[in-house]
Amino acid sequence: MVSVDCVEGETLAKRLEKGALPLEQALKLGAQIADALDKAHRSGVRRLLLKGMICETTRNLARL
Predict the structure, then answer these.
(1) Strands (DSSP E) found in the chain
(2) Could you report the per-residue pLDDT of 9-44, keeping only the tens digit for each?
(3) pTM, two decimal places
(4) Domain boundaries, the chain
(5) 33 contacts 54 by C-beta, under 8 angstroms
(6) In whole angstroms, what is the distance from residue 36 CA to residue 57 CA?
(7) Burial class (CB in 10 A: 0-12, 13-18, 19+), 11
(8) pLDDT at 2
(9) In this structure, how many other beta carbons lie within 10 angstroms of the beta carbon of residue 41?
(10) Is 50 left (phi over 0), alpha (psi -120 to 50) or beta?
């Protein structure tokens, strides 16, 4: 099942317009994104993922 949430934050694309992420934050978000992609692929979901489709929430969590 796939659901849609209303998430407060900004897209990764918008955030990167301000400059590079600090290393710790980039590693944390990267790990979250990799985990989400792994779970999606194991469930049979195969889609093109662009940085404009990734949101960093106000709690510093990655949402795809």
Answers:
(1) 9-11, 55-57, 62-63
(2) 898 899 999 999 999 999 999 999 999 889 888 888
(3) 0.76
(4) 9-63
(5) yes
(6) 15
(7) middle
(8) 65
(9) 11
(10) beta
- Determine contact, residues 49/3, Cβ cutoff 8 Å: no
In Å, how far from its chain's centre is CA 18?
Answer: 17
Nearest-angstrom CA–CA distance, 54 and 5 = 13
Sequence-distant (6+) residues with CB within 8 A of 5 are 63
> What band does 61 get if pLDDT is binned at 50, 70 and 90?
confident
Residues 41 and 8: their CA atoms lie apart, in Å, by: 26
Strand partners, 62: 56
**What CA–CA distance (Å, rounded) separates 21 from 16?**
7
